[in-house]
Amino acid sequence: MVGITGVGSGIDIDSIVKALVNSERAPKELQLNRLEQTTTSRISALGTFRSVANEFNSALQGLTKLSAFQRTSVSSSSSSVLTASATGSLTAGSFSLQVQQLASSSKVALQSVSGPLTGSSAATFNSGSLNITAGTASLDVTIDASNNSLSGVRDAINSAGESQGISASIISDSSGSRLVLNSSKTGAGNDIAVAVSEDGALTGSNSLSNFSYSANETAVRLPAFAGGSAATFKEGTLNLTSGTGSAAITISAGMSLTEVVDEINAQGGAQGFSAALDGNEQLVIRTASGGDLGVSVADGVTGAGDNDLTALSIASGTNSRAVDVAKSALFKVDGISFDKATNTITDAIDGITLNLVSAQSATDIAAGKSVNVTVGEDRGLARSNLQKFVDAYNKLVQTTGELTAVVQLGEGKKPVTGPLLGDTSIRNLMSGVRKEMGQLGDSGGIQSLAQLGITTGKDGKLSLDSSKLDSALQGSNYAKAAEYLAGEGGLMSRLSAVASPYVGTGGVLDERQKGLQSTVSNIDKQREALNLRIEKVQTRLFAQYNAMDSLVGQLKRTSESLANQLASLPGFVRKDK
User: Fold this and answer.
1) Cβ neighbourhood burial of 426 (10 Å; 0-12, 13-18, 19+)
2) Angle 289-292-295 (CA atoms, 0-180°, nearest 5)?
3) Which of 68, 227, 420, 507 could serve as 403's disulfide partner, Cβ 3.0–4.6 Å?
4) Where are the beta strands (DSSP E) in 48-206?
5) At 23, is the secondary structure helix, strand, or coil?
């Protein structure tokens, strides 16, 4: 509005100009609103279709390789004995296996800290170093004032052995507390051994040599005696036991510790017992039987000697021994024997990984019982991948139908249409897809989807008959179906070639969306131009009507002036109301 209008004429110029301006604006504004609504709706619809088309193409891309439909499966007839999985290209077949022994790692219980050792779990040890080996794994542990307790030694081993797969723990029983060493390395020859070296820098309540251990032995280390190797003992009998083995060693009065060693080796060697003095002149008795070693004494308190023979007795269960021996896996494949360091076998059957779970019983082995590993076509994979294709295609068909639908509302009423009705991009894409699906393949066995149990319903959607598909994939048809569906020139590759130009950045649908977004931007510019034109029209109308109003007001004033002049003339008869 420009100032106060209609003063001169009394006409409602504001209302007149407003009505004229609205009538000038309305047609163009209605046109722009309709175009914007239609364009926005098409942009949204194209975005929806593009998303579904992209899903369809992504599903196709994952199915273009032969491996998507041509893969073998591996199964075991007894998963409690072994499992098997494919790791490479395989051909159908069957293998017969027997598992005689699982691979295992070494576990060693070192000498108990009680009896001849003092302090139990709080025992302290002389300083020095431990060299712990398990096959090629090796670690050196320094023992000093900071860690010379039983728990300190354990922690030092765990810290140094983490990267080597060697660990330690403490267990306590009626005989006291002891270190138990574990190795994660399986296979024969990977047994734990401990070599000890004392440096004399620190003296504890026990010798560090108590941790010394040779692989696969049972050993007991007796305490040091005054006089060392020259210490003498009274007469009696040393009874050595380990598992089912035993030996009675006769000791004469006044024998030295060195002579006791000689007698044990002489009288007990046939039963698997041996003895030696370590670097601290402590008596070490060993047996290879693997059972707990016990030393008891009969008599032993009479005759010449500085020490009672009973000082050499030690209860079974306090010695060092192998809890588990490192073993290799022993098994047969079709009668051929294998010896492997681990229970996961990748190089026995080409393309197959075997995981040994448990050994068969000796009775089953003797009876020739075996576990069958079967290699066959993985029809489940083909079924699953074809179902992915069917689902992706059906979603594309459904979305296309919704966006291009024509819904009749009754006689005489205008139908409601989908936002992409008549869109050439959608029509061309769907036409290309249907054309490729209807094209017969070159394969002599499988030439169409219908032969694989995939048919089209009245609504244009696909359905998959699993039983018909399984029947179609029997024998050589399995490979022929893969050739028809995947690989160079396969159906999935051809469909992807049709869909790819439409999806993705720079594709047909992307360019269509950009074009529609450009239309929306142009509508905004047209609105700006319309507002400028309407503003000029309004200014012009106000100018015209205000000029008329001014003229009418001027004429009124002139009329009033003339009337007043006439009324003042002589003889003028005024006509009153």
Assistant:
1) buried
2) 105
3) 420
4) 72-76, 82-86, 93-101, 105-109, 128-134, 137-143, 166-173, 176-186, 192-198
5) helix
How many domains are contained in the chain?
3
Query: 420 with 389, same domain?
Result: yes
The domain that holds 188 is classified in CATH as 3.30.70
Contacts of 73 (CB under 8 A, 6+ apart): 86, 375, 376, 377, 378, 380, 381
pLDDT band at residue 527 under the 50/70/90 scheme: confident
Q: Which amino acid is it at 425? A: S
| 211 shares a domain with 119 | yes
Predicted confidence (pLDDT) per residue in 225-249, tens digit = 889 899 999 999 999 988 778 999 9
Residue 359 belongs to a domain: yes
In a domain, residue 245? The reply is no
193: confidence class by pLDDT, cuts 50, 70, 90:
very high
Tokens of 577: 């109301």
Percent of the chain whose predicted confidence (pLDDT) is above 70: 93
Residue 224 in contact with residue 311, Cβ under 8 Å? no
Residues 65, 135, single domain; the answer is no
Q: H/E/C letters for each residue in 351-408?
A: CEEEEECCCCCHHHHHCCCCEEEEEEECHHHHHHHHHHHHHHHHHHHHHHHHHCCEEC
- Residue 162, token pair as written in the block: 């983490």
What would the two tokens of residue 277 be? 């003095």
Q: What letter does residue 3 receive in the DSSP assignment?
A: S
Q: Which helix (H) or strand (E) holds 333?
A: strand 329-333
* Residue 465 resides in a domain: yes
Q: How far is CA 413 from CA 35, 76, 410, in A?
A: 22, 68, 6
Domain that holds residue 150: 104-215
How confident is the model at residue 5, as a pLDDT? 58
Q: Which residue is associated with the tokens 């499966």?
A: 73
Q: Is the domain of 65 the same as that of 88? A: no
Work out whether the CA dihedral 288, 289, 292, 296 comes out positive or negative.
negative
Same domain? For 453 and 513 the reply is yes
Q: Which of 499, 385, 386, 502 is nearest to 436 (CA)?
A: 499
Given a contact cutoff of 8 angstroms between Cβ atoms, the answer to whether 183 and 105 are in contact is: yes
Q: Rounded distance, CA 551 to CA 69, Å? A: 92
Q: Which of 105-119, 427-441, 464-478 shows the lowest per-residue confidence on average (mean pLDDT)?
A: 105-119
SS3 306: coil
> Which residues, 6+ apart, have CB-to-CB distance to 540 below 8 Å?
none
Confidence of residue 9 (pLDDT cuts 50, 70, 90): low
User: Which has the closest alpha carbon to 274: 251, 321, 318, 240?
Assistant: 240
- Identify whether 338 is part of a domain: yes
Which residue has better confidence, 325 or 365?
365
DSSP element (H, E) containing 249: strand 245-251
pLDDT at 571: 66
Give the list of residues 6+ apart from residue 90 with CB closer than 8 angstroms, or none: 72, 74, 351, 352, 375
- CA–CA distance, 119 with 124 (Å, rounded to integer): 7
Q: Are 385 and 63 in contact (CB under 8 A)?
A: yes
Residues 6+ away with beta carbon under 8 Å from 506: none
- Give the per-residue pLDDT at 169: 94
Instruction: Let me know whether 392 and 371 are in one domain.
Output: no
